[in-house]
Amino acid sequence: MESTRFVVLADDLTSAAEAAGHLADAGRPASVRLDVGESGDAWPCVDLDSRWLPEAEAAARHERATKQLRAPGIYKTMDSSLRGNWAAELAAVLRASGRSVAVVAPACPAYDRVTVNGHQLADGVPVHIGPAGRDPVRPVTDSSVLKPLARQGMQVIQLAPDERAIVAALADSSGPRALVVDASSAADLDRIAAAIRGHLSEVVLCGSPGLWEALHPIRGSRGELPAARKALVLVGSLHPTTREQLAKLESSGVPVLTTLDADRVARQFDTATTVAVATPEIPSAERHLHRLAILGVRCADAVPDLGFVLSGGDTARELAVALGATGIRAAGTVAPGIMLGTLTGPRRHPVITKAGGFGGPDMLITAASALTRSTT
């Protein structure tokens, strides 16, 4: 299974980074690409930046990428809380690839995201009841994994994580269809991976980091991870999990600011190893992301040997673009789904990326400490 080369199509940067980071852990050279046309590894993990686009535009972007990037294996990432245009994007990838079967398994048990009877739960409750249902841009209104696929005109089949049942469904030649597979544990995902082992070049896989990690078990050791002398934590995500992590980071003694005054932030590094800057906790905070990225660039100019911890896919992409990067060379992960790598382009800063909803209360502390090789 590991010998099958994949292309990863993601709707935001952290989703692409989750895949690339695990590939690096598994000994595969991988990078996050910010553009389909950029040169890169044999295992491209492409951020198509489509999560908040209109559905038709997001689907068209995935269709073009599928036609341009050819690989035996196709992995379409999806948000484990069902945010974004994932169903329309998956339907477009199926059409463009000429394949007729998608295997959909969005569970990520490491972060308590599970699929039960075709519904997605986060922290034990349906995703539309939790933070995803209160998203200020596009709230999730239903926890069903099946309904969005059916709206795309696909035949949808719900399956338990039973290897024989999955193999039988794959052998059925009744036409285009999506197999939605429940999973509540890593063992369930391992069974799904085993069932699709002989079909990777025939199907499109769609899932979160959980299925991707089951497909690529880690064997052996990775190289040394990059490090920085100072760490700037930029938080653009409004997710309650990230805000809890930010409060824990501040309680550990790290300065946490909401200013966009780069000079003031840079001065904090005179006495601190790690400094954090966050957007306000208001829905309009998304409009501050570009200014947050410009602050990051100015701090990089002023603070030698600076690395970044970036919470939220939009935050990470804005900073990478502002620094002139074409992508991120993955070095590995510091926790499941939390990638550490180096920007590719003129300014090769070490960066850690994390989705807003991932990680326990200490995750920002862990990430900053991993980046600076210190106790924050």
Automatic annotation (TrEMBL):
All copies of domain Four-carbon acid sugar kinase N-terminal, residue ranges: 7-215
Domain Four-carbon acid sugar kinase nucleotide binding: 307-364
Pfam families reported for this sequence: NBD_C (PF17042), SBD_N (PF07005)
Keywords of the record: ATP-binding, Carbohydrate metabolism, Kinase, Nucleotide-binding, Transferase
InterPro entries according to UniProt: 4-carb_acid_sugar_kinase_N (IPR010737), 4-carb_acid_sugar_kinase_N_sf (IPR037051), NBD_C (IPR031475), NBD_C_sf (IPR042213)
Domain of life: Bacteria
Gene Ontology MF: a single term: ATP binding
Protein's UniProt name: Uncharacterized protein YgbK (DUF1537 family)
